[in-house]
Amino acid sequence: MKKLFIKALLLTAVLAAALLVQACGNGDDEQAAGGGNSIILYSNAITDGRGDWIQERAREELGIEIDFVDMGGVGLANRLIEERYNPIGDVVFGLNQLLWANLINNDVLEPYTPSWASEVPAHLNHRDGYFHAVALMANLLIYDTEQFSPAEAPTDWLELWNEERFHGRHAFSQALTGSTTHMILSGIFTRFMDPNGTLGISDEGWANIQGKYSTGVNLLGEDLFATIALPDNDVAMGQMWHTGKPVRAIQHNVASAFVEPAIGVPFSVEGVGLIRGANNPEAAQRFIDWFGSAETMQAFGIEFNYLPANPNALDGLPEDILVIANLRHQAIDWDYIAPRMDSWLEHIYLTYMQ
Q1: Would you place residue 74 in the very low, low, confident or very high pLDDT band (cuts 50, 70, 90)?
Q2: Which of 266, 287, 304, 305 would suit a FRET pair with 50, their CA atoms being 20 to 30 Å apart?
């Protein structure tokens, strides 16, 4: 089983390499090498038109051309670690606290303090300047309001598997490589930390993880909202990042709401960081100073329903984003969670998905 898990990870790396070649082949040779006024931006946060917006604005306002390496957060981080002795990229945008910690521990990033760094709450930025927060992403438990009224809906993740009425009604993703999945699992694991327990988690914690997967419905790669919309389907709830919710609700004609657990919501810190050994550090630093500024992030937030980390960028944002801004943040012990997450994911895969 463990060999199968390792093979799956190797396959992910091979696919990531193929995507990298494709992404870097979009520009001319000078751009692909990061020369002149061009940079290569690694990101897991440029879907739904965000990458096009960044390209056009950076070209107009900075005179910088951008090529992207676009892939999921885990694949992106793994690729950067593989390239750390021969870096191709210049800047990283997106990720979450777990993945930033992984890059820092593997010497992928160069400390750089942007001009706007002091405007962002200090606890969101890395204390040694390896990354700085530009946006916050709420990782939500959403539900179909046509199947569950607010009075009937769960109030916390743990209810999904501890209350029989929700069994078979909540979905999970079999893929354990997604940023949202990592954040949701972090929010569960942080409640059951036990240095003397199996892999640092109490027996009660592993019983909850088992319940999550044994009473849930495997999406098998399908979109949550598309699954909810199927007429003969029992799935009514599952995980979703907050910017993905309105787009998919409209696309699949699903009326949805989200749960506000008393313990709080796991928030991803989407940041921006300078890659160590960047081919074009001067243009990379100019891009970072521009992109994370209050003015740019305010425009970005309005355009894409994003929640800027900079409080000075909140003016004029849509009401639904301000609702997200006021949600309670779940306190998560990242110093405990980050170094153990890989072993927990492997344990989940081998124990609960076979």
Answers
A1: confident
A2: 266
Q: What tokens does 253 get?
A: 């004609």
Domain extent listing, the chain? 2-136+268-325, 139-265+333-352
Band of pLDDT at residue 20, cut at 50, 70 and 90: very low
Contact 263, 163 (CB under 8 A): no
What HEC string does the chain produce?
CHHHHHHHHHHHHHHHHHHHHHHHCCCCHHHHCCCCCEEEEEECCCCCCHHHHHHHHHHHHHCCEEEEEECCHHHHHHHHHHCCCCCCCCEEEECCHHHHHHHHHCCCEECCCCCCHHHCCHHHCCCCCCCEEEEEEEEEEEEECCCCCCCCCCCCCCHHHHCHHHCCCEEECCCCCCHHHHHHHHHHHCCCEEEEEECCECHHHHHHHHHHHHCCEECCCCCHHHHHHCCCCCCCEEEEECCHHHHHHHHHCCCEEECCCCCCECEEEEEEEEECCCCCHHHHHHHHHHHCCHHHHHHHHHHHCCEECCHHHCCCCCHHHHHHHCCCECCCCHHHHHHHHHHHHHHHHHHHCC
Which residues neighbour 232 within 8 Å (Cβ) at sequence distance 6 or greater?
none
Helix axes 294-304, 281-291, angle to 10 degrees: 70
What's the CATH superfamily of 139-265+333-352?
Answer: Periplasmic binding protein-like II (3.40.190.10)
Half-sphere exposure of 210 (CA within 13 A, CB side): 8
Give per-residue pLDDT as tens, 89-118: 999 999 999 999 999 999 999 999 999 999
pTM for the full model? 0.82
**Is 70 exceeded by the pLDDT of residue 18?**
no
Q: Which CATH architecture has domain 2-136+268-325?
A: 3-Layer(aba) Sandwich (3.40)
For residue 299, the tally of other CB atoms under 10 A from its CB is 17
